């Protein structure tokens, strides 16, 4: 069974526990049906705990059950249901308020936190919010006073019963229209629920811009505190420190100290350098002993030319010199010591650097300041690296190199373009010649005299091939006849008797011996 509670922060859809709390659900449904919750305000809101409503008077001491409306003041409250036990374990649970002696009326609250077990034995859970948790979060974030009363009213504007399983008790008169709220109900002394809050009303444009900038700065400071970049929200950068940037790498601490010292006493001047190479990072911080000197230097030194560079000057936004003293103790500004032009050890150094300076004798001045200051040639102003002659030579050299690079690049591009054009033209000529040769060959082949020669040549080749084939056939037949003749002769010899064969072999052997042993006659004797 569900009920929709329409509030000024959004709609809440509630499912009721009919089986576990039948009497409490009956009381709640009939009060919604009688429009008794319309225009009731949430008179008690505690963040991450609960928000309470259901009192038509808005004081937390009023309200009665549906039985009081039907049967009179003696039935104003009814006894709470304790079994089964339903616990306050999560946000969004609806629970009736116990007015004392385990008696309930019309007031109820909605939990806004987890594990509120200490409320289980005293209050009666009868429903749960299933839709509209965004509206519940909006109620939880309401701004309240020390008594947990919202500065701006949060009210139930209407209730809609989606399903009612209980029949109406006798004597219950259901109103046709929602009743109009009384003047006492609306006059709560707070900002009305539908009233538009405008903080900018009655202020000039400059005041509005300043207020917006202040809010944005406060929001950014809160974020920086959350991520650990600021010790506290109220921490602000010092007003007597200047930030100088766009410096020339050859500019040293001494140069800045001498230039800015005319505006007042300088407590500390430091050019930020790389930790490994000790090269200048081209920005510095200058600390004066009072904000007035810092302000004068800001207005006079911005966009001033120092070592052929236009510098930029602004107030420092760094809080690196703010030391957090602990929670509730605030912060402490850790500054340097006063500047004395007659002394050279004006910079603030760490303990390790001070110990190092003690170990080095006073005559080793260059070794003392080597890590902190850039080496420079002690020559006349117009002859060192930043002089006019050097700059003209450098500009001329750069111009020549740029011109040479540009001419070389143009020549290379022209040569590549020419080579590409020649290759394309050569390829086109070659392709044209090949096409022309193929066309001429095809035309020559299709002429009548060439066709006759080709036919005669093909006929001659065919006849030659045929004669070769016939010759190969005749040679094969002759070889076959000779092979058959040899085979027949071998067969006849094998058919003879072994003795006869042996005798013939002996006779043949004797003839060979006599022929070999007889002396050879000369050719002349044989001829006689």
UniProtKB/TrEMBL annotation:
It is an enzyme of class 5 (isomerase). Its main location: nucleus. Residues 10-161 form the PPIase cyclophilin-type domain. InterPro entries: CRIP, Cyclophilin-like_dom_sf, Cyclophilin-type_PPIase_dom, Cyclophilin_PPIL4, Nucleotide-bd_a/b_plait_sf, RBD_domain_sf, RRM_dom. SUPFAM superfamilies: Cyclophilin-like, RNA-binding domain, RBD. Residues 345-528 are annotated as: Disordered. Its EC number is 5.2.1.8. Keywords: Isomerase, Nucleus, RNA-binding, Rotamase. Residues 240-318 form the RRM domain. Signal peptide: none annotated. PROSITE patterns: CSA_PPIASE_2 (PS50072), RRM (PS50102). Belongs to the cyclophilin-type PPIase family. PPIL4 subfamily. This is Peptidyl-prolyl cis-trans isomerase. It comes from Daphnia lumholtzi. The lineage of its organism: Eukaryota, Metazoa, Ecdysozoa, Arthropoda, Crustacea. The gene is EOG090X0971.
